[in-house]
Amino acid sequence: MIRPCELNDHETMAAIVNDAAQAYRGVIPDDRWHEPYMPLSELRGEIAAGVRFSGYEVDGRLVGVMGIQEVGDVTLIRHAYVLTELRGQGIGGKLLAHLLAETTRPVLIGTWAAATWAIGFYRRHGFRQVDEATKEALLRRYWSIPERQVATSVVLADSRWWAECAGAASYSEDA
Prior knowledge:
By secondary structure, this protein is of the alpha+beta class. The protein contains seven helices and seven strands. The protein has one domain (2-166): Aminopeptidase. Strand 3 and strand 4 (74-82) form a beta hairpin.
């Protein structure tokens, strides 16, 4: 079952993120890894900044989370995590489909360039990676992340973004 996450879910959500993020340990740049990967205060900060999380439950237990955030003229998919023990069972795909159905705007996803499994997941769900210059412009326009993270990330876009926005002058760094 997919449902909106609530205030009383925050600690469980943080636990899911931090469990699933162990896959990044030793993969993403060492200077971008920290323990816990996402402290509860950071999760709450993301929610305060407008990220709305949906959760996937199995037998009444929250086991996966994924966020959606409207920024400017696009929708971002943010913080997609499924408990390690339940990966590969379609939970992430169901959460993604659920969130995509909630928007008619172009959708962007940012992830670590070294997280090849995440990139593959989004590609299997119809997203395509943008080129380096576009990636940098999009990350600076729609995300609030450090320059080091800009340098070590990729951006993937859905078919709506490619149809409506790809190549638009408004996505250059000069905009």
